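Researcher: Please predict.
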Amino acid sequence: WLYSRELYVGLSILQIFNNKVKVVDAGSAGGKLNRHYFFTAGYKIKLDEKWAIVPSVLVKGSSPAPVQFDINAKVRYRDMIWAGLSYRNKDAAVVLVGMTYDNRIDIGYAFDYSTSRLNKYTYGSHEVLVGYHLPKKKLPPAHSYFW
């Protein structure tokens, strides 16, 4: 992750080593875990001292599946309370709400409503978010880095 007060970007890769999977069942050949790539970016647009809008995007890829993307927008009030909408191409629409307590603890809820053929079999999914922001470590003055 790289981030500032207004902008963030991130990149991650899961299953980076493409490990093989061995299955104990004699009738199965096993397989391998394909890499999953994730790229995210967002920008905080301050409307005034209390309100901000945070549009963002998440791009996901894993061969041989097609690339997926999420387009998101959150409205934040005093950097404490937020609500937003998200659209995942060919898959789901999402409603989310949350709050930040004491600039350290995030609590949120999201409901994903499937817009794909899966909606015949599910009414959607519920997600709960609990996050903790680690305190910033104060660095010593720059001159202490040099001898």
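Model: The chain has a mean pLDDT of 89.
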